[in-house]
Amino acid sequence: MTFIVWFAMLGAVLLLLALSSSYLRWIPVTSSVMCLALGIGLGTSGLGFLQLDLSKSSGWMEPLTEVAVLFSLFFSGVKLRLPLHNLRWCSAFFLAGPVMLICIGGVTLVLHYGLSLGWGVSLLIGAILAPTDPVLATLVQVVDAQDDDLVRFSLSGEAGLNDGVAFPFVILGLFLQQDNGQAWFSDWLLKDMLWAVTAGLLLGYWMGRGLGKLTLFLRLRSHDSTVSPNDYLALALIALAYVSAESIQAYGFLAVFAAGLGLRQAEVQTANSPEEPAAEHLV
Questions:
Q1: Which has the higher per-residue pLDDT, 83 or 274?
Q2: N or C: which end of the chain has fewer CB within 10 A?
Q3: Greater confidence, 199 or 158?
Q4: Are the CB atoms for 192 and 170 separated by under 8 Å?
Q5: Which of 152, 164, 144, 175 is nearest to 205 (CA)?
Q6: CA 175, CA 120: separation in Å to the nearest integer?
Q7: In terms of Cα–Cα distance, which of 192, 201, 217, 202 is closest to 253?
């Protein structure tokens, strides 16, 4: 299929989703389900309009899916407006930490002892399945920055953290599967677990918060709303946070989520009331 055909199909699908969004809001069907149904209907299982050869398309499919996840993670972080010292964050950290580790361990044990799979394959599958989350499910995630519902807030916070937290165990599963007798465990623990997770979160958070503070300072100093951040700020922050994290061998997905969170926290610091967002134009 030519690029023109692909682009035409994309435009038609986006137009259909835009026109049907007001109706989808009242039924238990999300836009993700609509996209899945359209893909099946237009693909080889349906009308056959879209023919996708994965072996030839993997070169552009992989970065395209990464970009989609980056946007989703960034705007998930932007919606989480509660200060980090708020107790509601504890549930998100608990879900993304101990609960997910228990899920990874449980799946690993079931696959190893129940299906007689090797430790490496069992852990790899457990680490892939554990962070399956509602990050794109609009019915259960935080609606906007003023939504502080405990369940939605916990799920949204966990969804932004779990991909990066689970990735070290994907690496560990690969190490176990290809164990050649070399001393790799300490390198995995220090580099892939402690450094990559911590550095990604800290780098992204302070990049987002610093850029937010800088933009607010420039706007207040110039008394000109045109200096206020816009869509370019979000695009720049997503790109810079991801590239910076990857350049120091940290997890870019965590950095982008933390960048959105840091940008929102910069706005929280300027609010006169915890219920009333200040400088909402920031995000």
A1: 83
A2: N
A3: 199
A4: no
A5: 164
A6: 7
A7: 201
Cβ neighbours around 96 below 10 Å, total? 23
Specify the pTM.
0.78
CB 257 within 8 A of CB 74: yes
pLDDT category, 84, cuts 50, 70, 90? confident
- In which residue are the tokens 């599963």 written? 173
Q: How far apart are CA 78 and CA 272, in angstroms?
A: 19
Residue 178 CA, distance from chain mean position: 29
Coil, strand or helix: which one is 197? helix
Among 34-48, 62-76, 100-114, which range has the highest average pLDDT?
100-114
% of the chain exceeding 70 in pLDDT:
83
Backbone phi and psi for residue 273, each to the nearest 5 degrees, phi listed first = -135, 140
Q: At what angle do helices 252-268 and 196-222 cross, to 10 degrees?
A: 40
pLDDT of 199 reads: 93
- What is the SS3 assignment for 273? strand
Lookup: tokens for 13: 């699908």
